[in-house]
Amino acid sequence: MKHILIYGFVISIALFTMYSCGDDEEACTESTWFEDADGDGLGNADVSLQDCDQPTGYVADNTDTDDTGGSSLVEGTTPVSAFDEFNTDAVTVSFNGDEITIESNALPNHTSPYWATDNSLYIDPVVATAQQMSPGRITQGSYTLTVSTSPEIASTTSSTGLGAIGIAVTGVPIFNDEEGPTGSVSEQVASGFDYAGAHMGPTGYHYHMEAQDVEANTVLSYDDEKLVGILSDGFLIYGRKCNASDDYPTDLDGSGGHSSTTQHSDEAFYHYHIINELYIDKYYLLFAVDYKGTPNRIM
Length: 299
Ligand SMILES: [Zn+2]
Ligand SMILES: [Zn+2]
Known about the structure:
mainly beta; 2 domains; binds zinc ion
């Protein structure tokens, strides 16, 4: 009997609370609040709720472009000295106000079995066998990319597509992990790559992977902090290690990027790294994630 009385009392309280809530809702005006997961006072436009009062962890602002990296994320200006790393035989870099144009004839400054046999840079295959190699020889191409000198992080990331997604320091186009509309690079396709992590396709010679650690590799980044190239959103991509820590960076976002100094700048700026995770047990994909910036067309 005592218990029934207590339950009745609880139900009465609950009913009273519900009714008084109803009264409150009529009296208040709901506002939209945006999640501020990183506590920098700026809210994420993609995560919101309606409430009369400001909920904990939510703010009225909706202008945070990265609600995970916080206010420490510096976009910065791309250091001009980075462009000294590009192969001048293949790549022309021109600066025009707040734009940089990178033009390449796609002819790399390193050896490969994909060169014509009478080319001075031709070598016999060292990684793939001749049977595994894809058909075709390195020929001159034409790639032009114009980016901002101070690329910005976009409000949302965007996926890369088939074809060139960037231009490497050697002048060769960088591809993602896709091999045609059929899907990602298979073990069989990868077995045809040269030590540079490249092979031939319908549009020419292109990189998918980090280069391999073979004697013939004297130019390309392997397990180091070397500059790899520039992606079409204007952000530079470096090897698996970062000059700022002299080690594998531990603060990379989902795009493999972070803000720090590099060998090219004492000022922190946003850049990508090759993500230090194996693909098919033996390769490191150059860039198989989403752009953090806004991609420009590579023509
Ligand atoms: Zn390919
Ligand atoms: Zn870095």
